[in-house]
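To the team - fe (ii) ion complex, inputs and output below.
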Amino acid sequence: MAEAAKATESARLKWKPAPGERVGPYEYWVRQTGLPVLRGHYVADVRTAELGWWAERECSAAFVDLQGQGSLMEGRITEIPPGVTLPPLKFGLDEVVYVLKGRGFTTLWRGDGEGKRTIEWGPHSLMLLPRNYTHQLTNAQGSETVRLLHYNALPMAMAAVPDPSVHFDNPYLQPGMIPEEETEFFAAAKMVPGRRRISVMWSGNFFPDLAVWDQLRRSESRGAGGSIVQFYFPGIPFNAHMSVFPKQTYKKTHRHGPGPFRPGALLVVVSGEGHTIMWPHDDEDAEKVVIPWHEGTIFNPPDKWFHGHYNVGVEPARYIAIQPPQHFSEHKSISIDVEYADEESWIREKFEAELAKRGLTSLMPPEVYTDPDYQWTYRDDEES
Ligand SMILES: [Fe+2]
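Output:
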């Protein structure tokens, strides 16, 4: 740890923009930490990605700036050593946190300690750290590290207000930001009526284990007999959903838009094994991007890119999609689906080849390639 700390500190002290290099306020702040920034279209496994030591925060960390985030959203990985509690941090923006590995707890309070509460979490928990609260993260285990994935709009905020001290440890408190009696802040999530294609949403600030979450509804628009749950954080401009689809099947490729530019959702694979194929909608000659995935892979389809997900494993696949702020909501734009009959032949060939490598075969009913109105069997059909 000491060597890593030294290397990071030395990078921080050495870094300055090259002559003539224009660096925005957020990137300047990031570069000054000396921490790695993971770029490209995906991170193969955020549970094992290389991190650097962040002396100020007393943890290992890396930033994630995938192409689809548009440099408007921050992804960040935090690793907490065994048994360690990190220094308290007051952050002015809402932050969604997903637990990649390990067990621990978050203590949250306002002002000098008002409304203090503690949330215990474990692998696959999803929680919301509300803006202007102080939070403190603890690894409750003595032998295992904790890894967390954070998602917030700091790059966007610092583009408008470049001074980091406005965003960190700013004493401002928004009165009544979350009326606790109404939202049962950090109490058990509850079901609320949904919107448009999603009939039911779950409202709350903490979802304990998404790997076993079973409150799902049919997702009929994308085929594969898949199901979905929408997570809504009360009083917060973020939401997320989780999609689950059966073994040895794949969902229809689709894209979002037309509409104004939006950073795409950050997708995190909770369980399962497969790949995603994505490409820009306006460049037929562009090389298709193939992302192999399993638990711990993250990726971010860029704005208006087609994307399709393929489950080549023997278990249902689960992924969560954490959406950028609602100003960029995908629900404001139309979803354009590619019917199975219209897809390029190599897409199905690749799917079948990946299955064959594992001694498996496709469970896609042949009729889906000829009948656009094919009626899938759903999990709840099987149960009833
Ligand atoms: Fe999508």
